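Q: A small favour: would you put together sequence and structure tokens for a protein?
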Amino acid sequence: MMDNERSVESISALPRSYARSQELFARAQEIIAGGTTLGKAPSTLIPGEYPIYAARGRGAHLWDIDGHCFLDWILAYGIIILGYCDPDVDRAAIREIEEGFAFPLTRPVQNELAELLVEVIPCAEMVHFFKTGSDATTAAVRLARIVTGRDKVVRWGYNGWHDWCCIREAGIPRKVREDVLTFRYNDLNSLEDVLSQNRDQVACVLMMPLEIEPPQPGFLAGAKALAHDHGALFILDEMRSGFHLALGGAQEYYGVTPDLATFSKAMSNGYAISVLAGRRELMRRLTETYISSTFFTNSIAMAAAVATIQKLRREQVIPHLWQIGQKLMDGLDRLIQETGVEAHTAGVPPMPFLVFRYADPEVRETARYLFYRETARRGVLLHPNHHWFVCAAHTEQDVAHTLEVCADAFRVVKQALARGYRAPAFQEVRVTVSTGQDSP
């Protein structure tokens, strides 16, 4: 195997040194649970091959503290839609900081943002603001329980980390888990079975409109119809899809208006805010419960969101996301055909992904390991277990460069597998591309 490893390394890019990152991370593990507050830190993806600490970012590029520059297609898990340090957004945030953003009173920008969201989101007649995606989806579930008087939730996709939707069971009461059910994506019979088996008990069907696999024609409309047939609300979790597929999210793009929807991520180009939007008669019933945080009214992110959405409306950002993403996916498909690597592109152009299809799990993991190791070593940051994202700052030259890097990585994969190389043992990060139960 040692000869085999040397043959693989001879066609590989040279490793990058992350000495400063690793030193800082070692210190962090002594004082921060998990070493970082980000549950899916790059350091855990291909250990030793991804940077850990960022120094700065600009446009579609970021620099780590060891001085390496990366063309970034992760974009902080999709929250950067315009590019790092967008001047219009940052100026709006700075103005809010200079005037004050934390008062016992509400800043007027809250109304401005609410009116803007009502204009652009199809289901939005009223909104309520939060800070994180988990805040908003949990509020949506509580509201559905208030409206219907029922307890059970049928969900699909990644919906946050709170008890009702956490992907790991440790610390979650059994009773909470018993009240939360799921179904198979793009399978209306599966959803019908779950609803029928829990007749008159389901408060809502809450789901991402898509993850890796796009919805089949009629699926989202069918899911809404089934929810309503069983007296449940239909809720779309648009944390990822919102403002990427269309200004009004997947509901606008696919033409299916939910009862409620949640948004965050791209709506403020990186500033922390989320929103629950929906029909007026439903949203008004939030006053029957208590949902509050000292930081919900902090207005920096609200000003940033107004600037972001206005820019998305004013400029051809979203068509650009589709164009750049399509060029990237088309180029990857062409490389896959040319190299004979067993893989295919997935997702939709603003949120593409690459899936390796080797039947042998060890071979598949080796291909994945080598591909992402090589792309990272060549300065292109792609996520092995999550959507990639396109932002307004990505250019056709960035696509061309990324495809050159991917071509080299595919060649390494092809030659290494032909020689019988297998990846070393490494910490595997869970990825599920068929059920949507994966990562934030």
Remarks:
- Residues 1-6, 427-439 have pLDDT under 50 and may be disordered.
- The longest helix spans residues 317-339.
